[in-house]
Amino acid sequence: MESYFALARLGALFVPLNHSLAVPEVAGIIERVGAVAVLGESALLDRHTSLPASVRIRMPLDKPVFDALGTVDEPVELPEVADTDPVAILHTSATTGQAKGVTVDGGSFRAIALGWLVLARPTDDIVMVNCCPLYHGSMVVSLTYMAAGATIVLMPGFTPQRALAAVEENRATHMWMVPQMVRFMLQAKGSHRTDLGSLREILYGAAPMPLDVYAEAVERLGCGFRQVYGMTEVGGPFVTLGPDEHPEPGDVTARIPCGRVVPGMSARAVGEDGQEVARGEIGEIVVRGPGVMQGYWNDPEATEEVTADGWVRTGDLGFVDEGGRIHLVDRSKDVIIRAGQNVYPSEIERALTAHPEVRDAAVVGVPDEDYGEVPLAYVVVEEGTTTATLLAHVRENLAPYKRPRSFEFIERVPRNPAGKILKKALRA
Fold first, then answer.
1. Which string of b and e fits 189-212 if b means at least 16 CB within 10 Å?
2. Among 254, 267, 284, 355, which residue's CB has the most CB atoms within a 10 Å radius?
3. What is the pTM of this model?
4. 95 — pLDDT class (breaks 50, 70, 90)
5. Partners of residue 14 on adjacent β-strands
């Protein structure tokens, strides 16, 4: 976080990277953006012994470096930095291919933060444990709450035990997580006696919250939930659903909306012709406003593809309800077309994870001679769960054309660090 503030004030571009990337992947990104300096913990820098020729500075961000900051006596002449100057290149999560570098300016971060301050109204008494990495929208969430005077507790890496201890030790009022982390934390809490009485709200995003996890968390943790929806191309989280708009925990038929667009930003659902569709009708969600990106780094063609008519195409299918709340249905690229009918994998995934014996699920389309494409479900289940059990469950909860043709039992669903399902890995 300190690095971001320092580089932004210097007028330099900040390019946060996923520390779990392989060495060649990191080198590729550094080469594409032409980075001249690499900052990080010594243990991470030691993994990258051979860097592209553009890199002139390697700076370990360990305790001695921060201790030395207080010993600098000479004032540094700082340049003027405008809101329209680029401050960061954030890379997409690359669920479908090579990560793209998204160029954002200071005005983008400011717009998203101000919208959040108005809609979510964070206060300076908040202590938030951030369980997510800081190389994407998670950083924007932290910056927004810091702007309100909140205290942010960063974790060196997520484990449910570490998260529980961080809440207890810091008397944390808020947590920022992905839904799978909430599930893991609930499982761990059963074997750990931890005082979570200070916890008031859990923010979550990157994936839908399974209703069973939500219900159990409300009952056992006694806190509210706030959903966050965003994307790198729009400066981070631009939609939120507050605790008062979440459904009752016992309502198994409920659908949790993404929420409302923060003030200053606009979003709508459009059809294939680019025109806005009626309320409740499914279309692609598009966004515009001061929070959107300047473009993809050195890729004008890709920028033009997603920013037609001043609106950023999210690639997410959804609708806007009568109350103005956004609901997501699926990724446009993930839609399964079975005999001409659209089947949304996320709907099947929600139905499957509503079964008490299903811990996680992912659905992809596979070719079929008769129907063109049919759903295949990958499931993580409790020991002893059978295909017959799952077939009976989907027969009760899904229309015939939506039911998976078959089930694959796996140990875990592959996800990226942001919690999104890696469907490309499942199709391989």
1. beeeeeebeebbbbbbbbbbbbbb
2. 267
3. 0.79
4. very low
5. 88
